[in-house]
Write a structure and sequence with these properties.
378 residues; single chain; four-stranded antiparallel beta sheet; alpha+beta
Length: 378
């Protein structure tokens, strides 16, 4: 049985239905008529132009209008933190300062306005991210950038920032010699820091060599960027954090505490030595001077006694009896001068002389002798 006999009207039955029972789809919206659009545009243009047609005068006005718009398209503005670089057919011809400027319209001249007067900052080893919970910012550590190996084979965690800007005379180099300026500066900074850290020991880095490290990294970065012709000047390198790795930071802190205790003990011992040694030297000098004085005194007394003995001996040789008698009397005076005894000469020949004995004075207590007189005489 032919398809046309299945209910008539078509192969799928009556009514023009398809194989699943649905009828043919309704046609979509008809596409716009281009001729109608062109005709309407020509009518509007005739109403605008004088005379109602596109004669020679109309084409001249259109050309002049287009030329004016093309000429005015050469005005441009350079922001305060930017510098303008004018390119003529792709070649750098001049630089312009911030403000309103003009260049020949495209495609003769174009302009590039990099932010050459702005100081840029790059953080390495850390990222400042927004903290939604606290409503502020927080610093996130980036270990793959911050962990570095020192010269004495220790690992140190270094976070630092680099401040840089475009050289005033190197805007063209900045635009055409490097493709990704920020990435280039970051890579050079990380490489320079790793090289400086690799030449240093960990102890100075953690304590007093921060300024030296910053200066060395800045100089090495500037030398490398100048070799690249990047047109970038590195203004400052700032070490934000220099610590041992988090896994061993407690042990390093114990070592630092021990070193501090050692330095304190050394300082205290030095202070004690500075106080005791001058006192000991003073006592040594005092004892030495006293001994020297005693020696000089003893020598002088011995010299005097010798001289006195020699003089007495000279007199003794001249008059032995007189000298002997005088020496006896002086000796007895020196020996008996300090006693309270009264000696009577019983062998005296004076007859009729009654010895006088002062009993009243003997009964009195002995009066102290005048110590200022020699021999203790009253």
């Amino acid at each position: 049985m032919p398809w046309t006999n299945q209910g008539g009207g078509g192969p799928w039955g009556s009514g023009g239905k398809g194989p699943w029972g649905s009828g043919p789809q309704s046609p979509g919206p008809t596409p716009p008529d281009l001729e109608e659009i062109l005709r309407r545009g020509q009518d509007k243009l005739r109403r605008v132009l004088p005379g109602g047609n596109l004669g020679g005068r109309g084409f001249a006005l259109l050309f002049l209008g287009a030329l004016a718009l093309w000429g005015f398209s050469g005005f441009f503005r350079v922001e305060p933190d930017e510098l303008g670089v004018v390119l003529r057919f792709g070649k750098d011809v001049r630089e312009v300062q911030p403000g309103l400027n003009y260049h020949l319209p495209y495609p003769i001249e174009t302009v590039l306005t990099p932010k050459a007067l702005r100081v840029n900052k790059i953080d390495i080893g850390m990222r400042v991210v927004d903290d939604i919970r606290r409503g502020g910012t927080t610093v996130r550590d980036v270990p793959e950038e911050s962990l570095m190996l020192t010269g004495d084979e220790n690992i140190v965690d270094v976070d630092f920032s680099v401040l840089w800007k475009v050289k005033p005379t190197g805007v063209g180099e900045f635009l055409f010699n490097i493709q990704n300026p920020e990435g280039t500066v970051k890579a050079v900074a990380e490489s320079a820091m790793r090289e400086v850290i690799g030449r240093s020991e960990i102890q100075p880095i953690l304590t007093g060599a921060r300024q030296t490290t910053e200066t060395a990294v800045q100089d090495l970065m500037q030398k490398t960027l100048d070799h690249y012709g990047a047109g970038v000047i590195v203004q400052q390198v700032q070490l934000q954090k220099v610590d041992p790795p988090a896994q061993v930071i407690d042990a390093f802190r114990d070592v630092q505490a021990a070193r501090a205790d050692l330095e304190r003990a050394v300082n205290e011992s030095q202070t004690y030595a500075n106080r005791v040694l001058p006192e000991a030297r003073g006592r040594v000098a005092q004892i030495t001077q006293a001994a020297e004085a005693y020696r000089q005194q003893t020598v002088a007394e011995a010299t005097g006694q010798t001289s006195r003995f020699l003089k007495i001996y000279e007199q003794y040789k001249k008059a032995p009896n007189v000298t002997r008698e005088r020496m006896y009397l002086e000796t007895m005076e020196r020996v008996l001068g300090g006693t309270d005894k009264i000696i009577l000469d019983s062998g005296g020949t004076g007859s009729g002389v009654v010895p006088y004995l002062p009993l009243n004075e003997l009964a009195r207590p002995a009066q102290p002798r005048n110590q200022s007189q020699p021999g203790g005489r009253p």
